[in-house]
Predict the 3D structure of the following.
Amino acid sequence: MLRIGPIDVEIPVVLAPMAGVTNAPFRRLCRRYGAGLYVSEMISARAFCERNDKTDKLASFDPDETPRSLQLAGVDPVYVGKAVEMLVGEERVDHIDLNFGCPVRKVTRNGGGGALPWKRRLFTEIVTSAVSNAGDVPVTVKMRVGIDDGHHTYLDAGRIAADCGVAAVALHGRTVAQLYSGHADWSTIARLREVVPAEIPVLGNGDIWDADDALAMMAETGCDGVVVGRGCLGRPWLFGRLAAAFQGEELPEAPTTHEVVTIMAEHAELLVEWFGPHRGVREFRKHTAWYLKGYPVGGEIRGRLGKVESLDQLAELLATIEDSPLPEENRKVARGHTKGPQKVVLPEGWLSDRDDAARANPEGDSAASGG
């Protein structure tokens, strides 16, 4: 059992926010397989405050979705506080997660995401603003180890967040510079668990590809739960395996290709229902490679699926796939981002003073970002 403020999470598993992936249709599929906390895509605080239509859609949930968990990003304490106040006042959320780990250059160059914890005063002001405006809704933070190996921030940020009253802290065991390369350093999660007060859960993230990885992370680090990102791409059923593992039950087998194509078809239909026929099918294209990664399916059909234009065309292509199990050696095949390392783009002079609370770019919370 994982407790996030007043929220009891039966299985200590959290779906990591992923742009373009963890929308309501994907969360619906994941929720079907196992209990957990399923977080939305990241949204921009300023964009939400200014009622950007795209952002408002990102901040939407299925009518039966509970708890409603949303990730918020921003570089301005005022906008972050106002967005939290609006989300809570409109009763749109049950949990808010603050993003301090995004490694994307367009975010870090404005001092946001994984770059922001370097500025301790600004980090403190943003977390305090969110917590003070959240009322009974729990606020958590998700972050990376630091900017690079010479500029770690996670221990200071963990202590500060705890002092500000957050309900939990999550750590991806990579720096921003690593991006998604190499291996996540789980020892950083263990060190964070040592410095954050015991009553505040610490969640570990990084390289959880299957249920045994989650159990291993918790055993090695002492963390209170796990955050699953790339491991569930094309594998919404992973949450069923995680639930079984944590309950000491026999793990369900990975689906065969015929079972997978049924899930694929439903996922595409849900996206069309959510976004409309044109955008929905296009949104699904990237998922086709993730679903079939590791399965013995030919390159030609994979390529055609990546260009599908309609649900009918998708159904015709899926019907040509022969039934095959997932080879055991491909159970943990990597999916999603693999790029890195990278040169981190930061605002000019960003590293010179850790206690300077000035934002690098007042436009960093672009109202047009949509998240």
